[in-house]
Amino acid sequence: MLMRTDPFRELDRLAQQMMGPGTWSRPSAMPMDAYREGDEYVVAFDLPGVTADAIDIDVERNMLTVKAERRPMAKSDDVQMELSERPLGVFSRQIVLADTLDTEHIQAGYDAGVLTLRIPIAERAKPRKISVGVGSGRKEISG
Question: What whole-number distance in Å separates Cα of residue 101 and Cα of residue 140?
Fold first, then answer.
């Protein structure tokens, strides 16, 4: 529905962790879950520590792009950092959406560090009944 599996995803994640924070030209990946709930698909992205105004969501044709930036916290001069494991920088994820999804009516919500996108299934993709017409008799073809 949303993406192909990537056997090298975990290797990429580890390599990005070792190479430092993501930049706008080389963003880090963000973890996500995707599932169907009733008549819509739900995609949830983990973005802890990111403010809502630092999230950018774009849809072009069937390509959904989510970018976010986790900025360093403002510190006073007397703060001495003992340990810093939370990654900073830019995070990005691109997903190819199926033609059966209605990209005109995507809803986005952000709560407790989780960005949730709800993408409705297009009316043309929903199951429907087709009635069968019955003819009123035979017709002869003369020629």
Answer: 46
CA distance 36 to 29: 22
Of 32, 59, 18, nearest to 114 by C-alpha is 32
Between residues 11 and 114, which one has the greater pLDDT?
114
Range 17-34 burial, b when 16+ CB lie within 10 A, else e: eeeebbeeeebbebebee
pTM over cut 0.85:
no
Please, are residues 84 and 62 in contact by the beta-carbon 8 Å criterion? no
pLDDT digits (tens, 9 = 90+) for 9-54: 666 666 655 655 555 455 667 889 999 999 999 999 999 889 999 9
Residue that has been written with the tokens 């429907």 in this structure: 128
Strands (E) in the chain, as ranges, are: 32-37, 40-46, 55-60, 63-70, 89-96, 107-111, 114-120
- Helix (H) or strand (E) segment spanning residue 16: helix 9-19
